[in-house]
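For this section, I looked closely at a protein sequence along with its fold in token form, which I now present.
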Amino acid sequence: MIWAIGDLQGCFDSFTSLLEKINFNHEKDQLWLVGDLVNRGNNSLETLEYVYKHRDSIKVVLGNHDISLIAAYYEIKKTNSFIEPIIKSPKADEYINWLRAMPFLHIDENTNYCMSHAGIAPIFDLDEARKWSDALHKKMIEDDVKQWLKNIIKNKSSVLRYGISNEEDEAYAFSSFTRIRYCFEDGSLELENKSNPGDKKEIENTTPWFDLKTRKKIEKKIIFGHWSTLGLYQDENVIALDTGCVWGGKLSAFNLDTQTIVSVDCKGSV
């Protein structure tokens, strides 16, 4: 069995409760995690320790909070009480080196699914998305990752466009995998609005990235998280799994083999 689970964000008790509910077996099953393993939840270290221990049966993609942990480790961003235990852990180097080697996009050639934390930019087809995931992954594992990460994080633009420059294109791809929610009609990223589409708070001429009429066809169904206000959502092209556990909602798992969804209530929140 293959199960995909939404954003954990350090909610370790909910995570283990969900694994128990789905009868997950690390010896024969596989787990996909949509990123944001840590931060905001009180048991981020325990969560990361567990995922690392069972890494042979788990596929992980990088989320924005995982990037924030890596940046804090390199003293690019400030730490906080949620991730400080990870940074102070005797195995911090080991955990961070493993985490920064995780991809931005996971494509399973044996199923009809792929996975990224926030989504795939609507101007990318699957080959283009794979190309950018590989390019960003290469940057993340290089020795000078600190300077590269510092440069890409300092781009605070609320709108990112593609085709401007190599630096801007890199920031666009980076944000499309880790931060995307809404897009403008030309595929530019609008990175401020976090509301549910049903709230009708969209900035003018924007739409959820997966609903853009000109979105390039992706041959596989995209599993993603990141958008807690969207919650559980699925159509023929995507399935969203961030059901807001860290905010007092639920933690949800999707079975790729049976297309069933199983959830547990939050066990403690911020």
